[in-house]
Write a structure and sequence with these properties.
mainly beta; 20 strands; 249 residues; six-stranded antiparallel beta sheet; 2 helices; five-stranded antiparallel beta sheet
């Protein structure tokens, strides 16, 4: 009989009731996360103020329009057409609603001294590392990607939990989902290799607003027939790669 024990983990966080204001979804130190933290901000009017402190923070717009106000910089428009902004550490900012209610995902990770020292080389965005992006935006510590997954496609199985220079860098991941159809859903499978000392083999059906934490292992995402799944994928780790590396299954 094998001495390998399967590790059962619930990595799924259901959407729950969508409350006004800021709501924490998962904290750093929970569910195997060492770096990442995620919450949702919902405003119907007015403004909300925040500070990044020692963290880099990604703002991801899911609905509505608002202005991002930072001292010394002209206001920048937040909207679904310009959905991703990365803010550096020690940034005081305000989000002010404009024409309609707004919903924004807020992902953060602490930035170490090594990352701060190499920020000019490794950070993207304009000006500095503020800035809108389509597809993937990479900061000092955060890697943020919007993936659109339809019935005839899927996010290819891959992993990023080991350090193998030139092929793979260890990153934990949070995936937040939006689903177009009321009856639609996404499918997420998280698993490890057969020789892993604590193997996982978890499958989840995700609905609109659900979140899956991926601290390690291979993972693949698909969509139910007739629906489109939007996945915000945010990664962070100890080592910042010169470019994104994934080890395929």
């Amino acid at each position: 009989m094998s001495g390998i024990r399967e590790c059962k983990e619930n990595l799924l966080i259901r959407a729950g009731v969508r409350r006004k204001g800021y709501s924490k979804v998962v904290r750093r130190g929970e569910m195997g996360l060492r770096h990442l933290e995620f919450g949702l901000l919902r405003l119907s009017s007015g403004e909300w103020s925040g500070k990044t402190s020692k963290c880099e923070q990604a703002l991801v717009v899911y609905s509505g329009t608002a202005d991002l106000e930072i001292d010394g910089i002209p206001p920048m428009s937040l909207s679904e057409s310009r959905p991703i902004f990365i803010l550096p550490p020690n940034t005081q900012y305000a989000i002010r609603t404009t024409h309609c209610p707004v919903e924004i995902g807020m992902f953060s990770a602490p930035v170490g001294l090594s990352a701060e020292a190499s920020a000019k080389v490794e950070c993207s965005g304009s000006p500095g590392i503020f800035g809108p992006a389509d597809g993937t935006l990479t900061g000092c510590r955060l890697i943020v990607t919007h993936a659109i997954i339809s019935t005839d496609g899927e996010k290819v199985p891959h992993k990023h939990d080991a350090f193998n220079p030139s092929t793979e860098f260890p990153h934990e991941e949070i995936c937040h989902f939006r689903v177009t159809s009321a009856q639609g859903f996404g499918l997420v499978h998280v698993y490890t290799g057969a020789t892993d000392p604590c193997p996982m083999n978890e499958s989840y059906e995700v609905a609109d607003g659900d979140t899956v934490v991926i601290p390690r292992g291979y993972h693949v995402i698909g969509a139910s027939p007739g629906s489109t799944v939007y996945c915000t994928s945010v990664l962070a780790g100890e080592v910042y790669p010169p470019r994104i590396h994934h080890t395929p299954a």
